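Friendly challenge for the regulars: who can give me the structure tokens for this chain first? No prize, just bragging rights.
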Amino acid sequence: MPAPSITRVGIVAKQGLVAAAEQLEQLGVWLARRKIEAVYERDTAGLTGYAAGCAQASRDELPAKVDLIVVLGGDGTLLGMATRIAQSGRDVPILGVNFGSLGFLTETRIDELFTSLEAVLAGTAMSDRRAMLRADTFRGTECFDSRIVLNDVVFTKAALSRIIELSISVGDNLVTKVKADGLIVATATGSTAYNLAAGGPIVHPRVDALVLTPIAPHTLTNRPIVVPANEVVEVRPTVVDASDEIFVTYDGQTGYPLHAGDVVRIRHSERMLELVKAPARNYFELLREKLKWGERGGRE
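First reply, four minutes later:
Bragging rights claimed.
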């Protein structure tokens, strides 16, 4: 990534991540020595006494106040901030630092944090521009909800509901009417999330595409399909009675039930996310490490 002008760094940790207290203080001290202001997310500030004398902001406010955001936690924490960055209209890079097992998005290990930050400040860090989705939900002729997400838009049934039916179109063309437990519409970045667990393909993040993956389809011939990123995917739920409870969720973070006649239109957003890459791993190394490719199971 080009040498940035970074004067303020936002710091966000997974809620309740007490184990990060030491790193949160070290990060604040490290930035202060370089005359860079640390701005702690308010819940994060509560994890360390050091943040009491530092600037603070809510998660919603943070993207407008900083030049870089460091996330300590897991992919879920990063996804929440990615949406807020997109909604702010600013291009704020995000550095994801993982606690616990390596994440697909929070791919930097805690011992790589300061090396990665040095590279960002020097302009030598590598970064990816990740595509995001815009989802508009129409009820009648009115668009009553719009979201921007990094990973996926997911349609699912309620826990005790029967199989749901969804009509799926791409552009002006009907793709299929699928009876299933649900449907995933994912970006290439989101292909390694719920999409992967549901049997969908892994798509390299530089591939400009959308992935449509049915969840446990009633008909085995309903398979995942990859479509061009410039297409508009339209999903219409078939709601016959109150037992047909169909929910739409965004990046696994928020969502709501759909009503009869609702239409969700999904397309690539104009917003993209700049994700700082781990200094020592490429994408395929990350896949091998995360998915344990090539490792033998059991005894020799």
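The helical segments are 21-33, 42-45, 75-88, 113-122, 194-197, 283-291. The radius of gyration is 21 Å. Your move, everyone else.
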